[in-house]
Specification:
The chain is about 15% helix and about 30% strand. The chain is built from 13 helices and 51 strands. Strands 17-18-23-24-21-20-19 form a seven-stranded mixed beta sheet. Strands 30-31-29-26-41-40 form a six-stranded mixed beta sheet.
């Protein structure tokens, strides 16, 4: 621990916490946190959430706040960025196997199951379990373990001294003195690179000093790789011509000096020690010569993604031209570390419990498929482009013009190197890529899959569900105690912790957030929108609906006064509620409420979640009866991130995460609540909508489908959420049998989950490449789901066709038991005689598992977007068509199922 960063006499310009792993296996830090408290404080006031892993026998660097003196030396590249301002003399730090803020202090933390380690130093009142805290520090000193001892006695385990921070990529110091290019006579024996690599996972000549030759295919003098890739001259090309099958013809050569003195294409001889650096074979160079003799050029190996680990090892470090199809599957870290997760094949990686029941063979097969198809597309560096020292460098891959979206097809435009680091295989450009050199260096482009609106779903009432990402009109600056996520200039952007607000830090950032949410809701085209994660304004001693009213005002400002309304809170609400809630807004011209809203009261199951909110709607112009009434129940179940109070809430590792028992109880209570409200309303048409925090095949969703509801989202072939590089749906619309019969279409509008997090309002100005815009894209982290329903009789009772009657466009008649509509003026033309005539047949309604659609008819004019049923198969029109039978290859009809 070092807290003197940037202070007078400091050793570095910022504070840090370094973690060390003394074992021979890497330790994952995903879902863990470092938490901080002042020396005498009774709370843990700061927290940095962790991702990644500590390598075996290695370190992991968690950077914290900068001090005032930024002229002091920089830290090595941090593994994780934090912003805690640590004390330069004494405080306490805990390593926690979770992200829930600690409540224990001192010796009590030794029995806390989530405390991995805890250190108090200086004047800290926390001694953990021993006799005293660790020694105090100065601006020039840190406190660290002596010989990695761990007896729980801080005073015995720790000593103060000069800080020597190391990160997970620390390969040790460069050889001293740093060598210069050699001009001496080459050694007699030059070992081929393939002989160094061998055919196993570890270098055949591991630990030996060798001399080898090759052509430089990639050089990284900047960015932190500090080395080059060297490949045997003339190798590569067609794998069938490989002279060393099973062994790679390339190797990474570690030397920053070498990387700065050679160019791609140089013929180089290197002497150095062979070793495995976190499973990447490398030669640590001690001397080298740039040869003048010509060498056959290296040819990129043309290959699909290698199916096995052995096949990948055989190509380690080689220049390759990938083909066979890749799509983006992960862009969460692209704005920080310049990495894009790819999936070989035509689809992203999928959450196993989205396709199979937990523990099933189907789920296991999906997990295996994910492991086999995943690969990183990197930027040739270890930089964090949101750190203070790097945020002035334009981002690689992301420029605000060319989207990098999950599911987008990747086109490789230049060869890449197959590399192994960060415990994953990856493609590296042949030099460090940044936004400044992208035109010359970027080796791939991405398909633009954005759409301006969801697909047409039909119906006379369209219902959507949308998680609006902690929309709070009570901003952090209106409260005391709030701590913030800040931009690269230190300006607060969004609330991190310390108060009940969860959204924007101030009015300026609220406007950024609100603009995107309003744009998304407006373009969604829904008549009714169920909202999740909106502020419960009662928390702040305001009317409960204040934030909801503010959102409607913003929607009306964009779409016109009176366009939108919100459903008022019920007269009776739960005595204890979360700071976020469920809500409804609707378009007044197309939807109207029937009766008052109802919220679930007195349910023990929802003690750790948001209580369901129910409202009956009907299309404007509906009848006084219940035939066209629709009950919509908005939900937001307990999240997966922490364990609830019930036995069975602990994460069992079956893919369902923590609090599965809580969500099962909530699903069970929801079924009973919906039944009661529907019975009171006199309708059997019910939609259960919202963020259920459960993927498609998990227990809570099965509770609902076993109760007779049908999950409509899977019919779209899309997903609402992306986590850990895998897609799945946490958001659902589940229809009762009667509601299902009225469904005309369903779509998931992929505007959020597939977009980089860098586009959120909350990442404004994190890098000089500012990706914030006013479009709907990345207005939240969940995608909205839209369903259309026919609740009114939309085919009027038609009179019989008469040969002598004049009909004009829009007239409807019956003939031979079928219904027709006139497309233009006609008289005497028999309906159904010609598919090209004046009469368009209105197909009969057909109920399918994904909804009720009309049968395809030859004479109907389809303009694009309509869904029909033909021979039991559902199709969607791609473009204008008439009298083209669905199912014809390359035709206008897209098969849905």
């Amino acid at each position: 621990m070092y807290g003197g960063g940037g202070n007078s006499g400091g050793a570095f310009d910022r504070d840090f916490v370094e973690l060390y792993n003394p074992t021979d296996e890497p330790v994952s830090l995903d879902g863990w946190s470092v938490q901080y408290g002042s020396a005498t404080g009774t709370t843990w006031s700061g927290q940095t959430n962790l991702t990644g892993q500590i390598p075996a026998g290695g370190s992991f660097l968690v950077a914290q706040a900068y001090g005032a003196n930024t002229d002091l030396p920089d830290l090595p590249t941090p593994d994780v960025e934090g912003n805690i301002a640590m004390s330069g003399s004494g405080a306490k730090v805990a390593l926690v196997s979770g992200t829930t803020r600690l409540t224990c202090l001192g010796a009590a933390c030794t029995s806390a199951t989530d405390v991995v380690d805890l250190v108090g130093w200086g004047s800290s009142t926390t001694t953990y379990l021993g006799s005293a805290p660790a020694p105090g520090t100065t601006n020039a000193t840190s406190v660290s373990r002596t010989g990695h001892g761990h007896t729980l006695d801080n005073a015995a385990d720790f000593a103060a001294g000069t800080p020597t921070p190391a990160n997970s990529g620390d390969g040790g110091p460069e050889p001293t003195p740093d060598p210069s290019p050699s001009t001496s006579t080459p050694p007699a024996t030059v070992v081929p690179i393939a002989q160094i690599q061998g055919t196993g996972p570890v270098a055949a000549l591991d630990g030996q000093v060798v001399t080898t030759r090759g052509v430089v295919t990639a050089a990284y003098p900047t960015g932190g790789f500090d080395g080059i890739y060297l490949q045997t001259a003339g190798s590569g090309g067609d794998p069938a011509d490989d002279a060393t099958p099973g062994a790679s013809d390339a190797v990474f050569v570690y030397s920053a000096a070498l990387a700065g003195q050679v160019q791609v294409g140089d013929h180089v001889e290197v002497t150095g020690t062979v070793g495995e650096y976190f499973e990447l074979t490398q030669v640590r160079a001690s001397s080298w010569t740039v040869l003048t003799e010509p060498a056959p050029a290296v040819k990129p190996t043309t290959t699909t993604w290698p199916a096995t680990e052995a096949e990948r090892e055989a190509l380690e470090g080689m220049l390759i031209a990938p083909h066979g199809g890749f799509v983006v599957t992960d862009n969460y870290s692209t704005n920080a570390y310049g990495t894009v997760g790819l999936a070989a094949g035509g689809s992203p990686l999928v959450q196993p419990t989205s396709v199979g029941r937990p523990g099933s063979a189907e789920a296991a097969a999906q997990a295996a498929d994910n492991a086999a198809r995943g690969v990183l597309l990197d930027d040739g560096s270890t930089w964090n482009y949101t750190s203070a020292s790097r945020s002035g460098t334009p981002l690689p891959w992301l420029d605000g013009t060319h989207p990098v979206r999950v599911g987008a097809e990747v086109t490789f435009t230049a060869p890449v190197v197959l590399d192994y680091r960060y415990s994953a295989w990856g493609f590296q450009p042949t030099q460090q890529l940044t936004g400044a050199n992208a035109d010359a260096v970027q080796p791939a482009t991405f398909e633009d899959t954005r759409t301006d609106a969801p697909e047409a779903v039909g119906g006379d009432l369209k219902v959507a569900t949308f998680n609006v990402l902690n929309y709070f009109t009570t901003t952090g600056d209106q409260l005391t105690g709030c701590q913030y996520y800040t931009d690269r200039e230190g300006a607060p952007i969004s609330v991190r912790t310390g108060c009940d607000a969860r959204g924007a830090a101030d009015a300026e950032n609220l406007e950024r957030q609100e603009t995107k949410i309003v744009a998304a809701i407006s373009a969604l085209g829904a008549d009714v929108v169920a909202l999740e994660e909106i502020e419960n304004s009662a928390t702040f001693d305001k009317p409960r609906d204040q934030a909801l009213s503010d959102l409607v005002d913003a929607l009306d400002a964009a779409d016109g006064a009176g366009t939108w309304a919100y459903v008022p809170s019920p007269a009776e609400v739960p005595a204890s509620e979360d700071v976020i809630r469920n809500a409804f807004v609707y378009r007044t011209a197309t939807a109207e409420t029937v009766g008052e809203s109802t919220i679930l009261l007195g349910s023990e199951a929802f003690g750790n979640a948001r209580q369901p909110l129910a409202q009956v709607f009907q299309p404007v112009g509906g009848s006084a009866g219940a035939d066209d009434d629709l009950l919509v129940v908005s939900n937001h179940f307990k999240s997966k991130g922490s364990a609830g109070p019930w036995p069975g809430d602990a994460d069992t590792g079956d893919g369902q995460g923590a609090s599965n028992e809580s969500r099962v109880r909530q699903a069970t209570a929801l079924v009973e609540f919906a039944d009661d409200v529907a019975a009171a309303a006199g309708t059997d048409k019910v939609l259960l909508v919202g963020d259920f925090n459960a993927y498609e095949q998990e227990d809570p969703i099965v509770v609902l489908t076993d109760a007779g509801y049908t999950d409509l989202g899977p019919t779209t072939g899309k997903w609402t959420y992306s986590f850990g590089g895998q897609v799945g749906s946490l958001d659902h619309v589940l229809a009762s049998p009667a509601a299902l019969a009225a469904v005309t279409g369903t779509d998931i509008w992929n505007i959020n989950a597939v977009e980089p997090v860098a586009n959120e309002y909350s990442r404004h100005n994190y890098n000089v490449t500012d990706l914030y815009d006013t479009t709907p894209f990345r207005s939240s982290d969940h995608d909205p789901l839209l369903v259309g329903l026919d609740l009114l009789a939309d085919v009027p009772t038609a009179p019989a066709w008469e040969p002598g009657t004049v009909y004009t466009a829009g007239d409807v008649v019956s003939h031979d038991g079928r219904t027709f509509e006139a497309l233009w003026w006609t008289r005497g033309e028999t309906p159904g005689v010609s598919p090209w005539g004046a009469w368009s047949e209105i197909g009969a309604e057909v109920t399918t598992p994904s909804g009720t659609f009309r049968a395809w008819t030859p004479s109907t004019v389809y303009t694009g977007g309509e869904t029909v049923v033909h021979d039991g198969v559902t199709y969607r029109a791609r473009w204008w068509t008439r009298n083209q039978v669905p199912g014809t290859p390359w035709g206008p009809w897209e098969k849905l199922g």
